[in-house]
Amino acid sequence: MKYLHAIALLVCPASTVQAQTVVRVGEALVKPGLAATFTGTVTVRTTAEVIAPGQAGAALVTFQSGARTNWHTHPAGQILYVTEGCGWIQEEGGPVTRICKGDTIHARPRAKHWHGATNRQGMSHLAVTETINGKPVDRLEPVAASQYRGPAR
Prior knowledge:
Strand 3 (42-48) and strand 4 form a beta hairpin. The N and C termini lie far apart (56 Å). By secondary structure, the protein is mainly beta. The protein is globular, with a radius of gyration of 18 Å. It has a single domain (23-149), classed as Jelly Rolls (Sandwich). Helix content is 10%, strand content 40%. Strands 1, 3, 4, 7, 8, 9, 10 and 11 form an eight-stranded antiparallel β-sheet that branches. It has a two-stranded antiparallel sheet with strand order 2-5. It is built from two helices and twelve strands, in the order H-E-E-E-E-E-E-E-E-E-E-E-E-H. Residues 1-14 have low confidence and may be disordered.
């Protein structure tokens, strides 16, 4: 095992070798979702910052009932894992789809979409997003109430 460690140190430049870090509960940055990005009450808890040479970051996003993202795209796509409750997700031109605790969603690169809680139940999801040239997301317009409510749900 010590030989593999030595090989890794030889292969990786010194500038990319970093000590393991642990972020304890309560130490992660928690902030309210910005009104320019979300509708309703949302909190965003950064769980993993992008650390070079990696390109992925992660956040635990909690939506109160009725809260949702604006329409947006991700240059490299996004993975969502629902940790609590149920919500809705929609890709532009497609149906609004119910998502619940334990579901995993793969948003395609550059696909315009939104996601959030239902109008009666909150939802939390872990969002894993990769960056391209340091950019994880392109934020667009709010989801209209008629789009969010859609056909009777």
